Backbone:
């Protein structure tokens, strides 16, 4: 039977797993694989496992419970080893690296910030600042060929990308001091920012306030979504 | 301003589909892996991500931008946001302003609570209302991702 791995913690980490269950249907039972230095929270890997809502939630719930008790290395969803023995071998082999990372993450949590801007608001700004785009817009609005419309769209698309990247950089820079580390990821369509922060637990209030100030300054055309505290997925 | 705060992906029981979407890519794409261990197939999800990248630089996208620009009313467009704000202000009165501030100051507390309790009531009530302001693309995608 192969083994599904949820997280790795220090050996003495609290394991508040009562009432929680693992991935699969019927839900698998959680157990631990331990060495003298580290503990892995695992379950049997159900055959045919895929990223269903139920399973992703089960994975996340286990991590949140563990995270409440201190530093936890969250595994990526769906990681499966051949068996408990191989998990134990990995814990022994990588013990130094895992302990080092646990120490880095101790007392820190992840926050994920996504941001988007109202498209009309952005297009209006682009239009006001570029004569070429404005003229092309007037022309295609009156009649304009297919090629003109594609040319207009391509110019605008490039502006949207460049401005989005610039805004993402600005936001990241202004929030840098409020967090220990940050990690960019691909933004969703219609958004310009998908940025994770590693924040000391004791400073989350100040961090949230800094994000709030950023959102306030940007105005109504922007929508920010801040999620956290999360297991430090982006920093392991 | 517009800031939606979420304590975590799973608070509020089954009602948090949008929340789960917002952290799905962290759970699926980030996190620790162990060399030589395998991952379960996430085929459908990977395809979706590739699609997104392709679409960004396609003629269809260009034409959509062109159309959006053509439709844009530069003159009256400037007034639109304040008109909208007035309207919302009339309807919800002081509630709107107080709510966004209150939601934030209470949020840090709610974060901590949600680590212990999965049923934070104030979070649950807060989110559906605030999320209506967001574009609907995310919830649609999260559904197709699940399959």
Residues:
């Amino acid at each position: 039977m192969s083994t599904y791995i949820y997280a790795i913690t220090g050996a003495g980490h609290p394991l508040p797993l009562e009432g929680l269950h693992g991935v699969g249907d019927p839900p698998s039972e959680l157990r631990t694989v331990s060495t003298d230095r580290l503990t892995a929270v695992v379950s049997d890997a159900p055959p045919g496992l895929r990223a269903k809502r139920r399973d992703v939630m089960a994975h996340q719930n286990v991590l949140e419970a563990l995270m409440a008790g201190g530093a936890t290395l969250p595994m990526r969803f769906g990681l499966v080893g051949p068996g408990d023995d191989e998990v134990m071998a990995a814990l022994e082999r990588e013990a130094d690296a895992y302990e080092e990372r646990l120490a880095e993450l101790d007392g820190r949590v992840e926050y994920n910030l996504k941001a988007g801007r109202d498209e009309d608001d952005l297009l209006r700004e682009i239009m006001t600042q570029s004569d070429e785009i404005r003229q092309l817009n007037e022309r295609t609005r009156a009649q304009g060929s297919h090629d003109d419309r594609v040319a207009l769209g391509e110019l605008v698309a490039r502006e949207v990308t460049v401005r989005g990247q610039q805004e993402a950089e600005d936001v990241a820079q202004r929030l840098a001091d409020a967090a220990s580390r940050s990690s960019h990821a691909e933004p969703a369509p219609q958004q310009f920012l998908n940025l994770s922060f590693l924040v000391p637990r004791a400073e989350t209030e100040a961090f949230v306030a800094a994000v709030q100030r950023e959102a306030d300054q940007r105005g109504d055309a922007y929508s920010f979504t801040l999620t956290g505290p999360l297991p430090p997925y982006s920093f392991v | 301003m517009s800031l939606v705060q979420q304590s975590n992906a799973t608070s509020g029981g089954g009602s948090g589909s949008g929340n789960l979407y917002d952290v799905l890519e962290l759970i699926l794409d980030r996190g620790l892996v162990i060399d030589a261990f395998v991952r379960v197939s996430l085929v459908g999800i990977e395809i979706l991500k590739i699609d997104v990248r392709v679409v960004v630089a396609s003629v269809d996208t260009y034409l959509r931008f062109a159309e959006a620009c053509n439709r844009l009313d530069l003159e009256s467009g400037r007034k639109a946001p304040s008109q909208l704000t007035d309207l919302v202000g009339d309807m919800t009165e002081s509630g709107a302003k107080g709510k966004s501030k209150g939601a934030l100051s209470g949020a840090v507390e709610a974060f901590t609570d949600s680590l212990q309790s999965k049923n934070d009531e104030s979070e649950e009530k807060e989110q559906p209302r605030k999320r209506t302001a967001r574009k609907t693309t995310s919830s649609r995608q999260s559904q197709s991702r699940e399959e």
In short: Chain A touches chain B through 85 residues (CB under 8 Å). The beta strands of chain A are 3-10, 31-34, 38-44, 72-74, 79-81, 108-117, 181-184, 191-200, 222-230. The mean pLDDT of chain A is 94.
